[in-house]
Amino acid sequence: MSLTEEILSQLPGDVLRGLRQGDRILTSVHKNSAPTPQLVKEN
User: Fold this and answer.
1) Does 7 score more than 80 pLDDT?
2) Quick one: pLDDT band at residue 21, thresholds 50, 70, 90?
3) Residue 31: which pLDDT band, with cuts at 50, 70 and 90?
4) Rounded distance, CA 36 to CA 22, Å?
5) Rounded distance, CA 41 to CA 43, Å?
């Protein structure tokens, strides 16, 4: 376990998991592979 992981594990909640999820989202946005949400639905 890195020092960063050790420090973050002492904080309330799962901070490290949230940071990793945010990193995955930003990476997918930069690679333009993030799914685009459908905001308007036509019938």
Assistant:
1) yes
2) very high
3) confident
4) 16
5) 7
E-strand stretches of the chain: none
- Output DSSP code: residue 3: H
Residues 13 and 24: beta-carbon distance below 8 Å: no
Amino acid at 30: H
Handedness of CA 13, 19, 25, 28 (dihedral sign): negative
Question: Which residue in this structure is represented by tokens 């890195």?
Answer: 2
DSSP output for 13-30 = S-HHHHHHHHHHHHHHHH
User: What is the chain's Cα-based Rg?
Assistant: 16
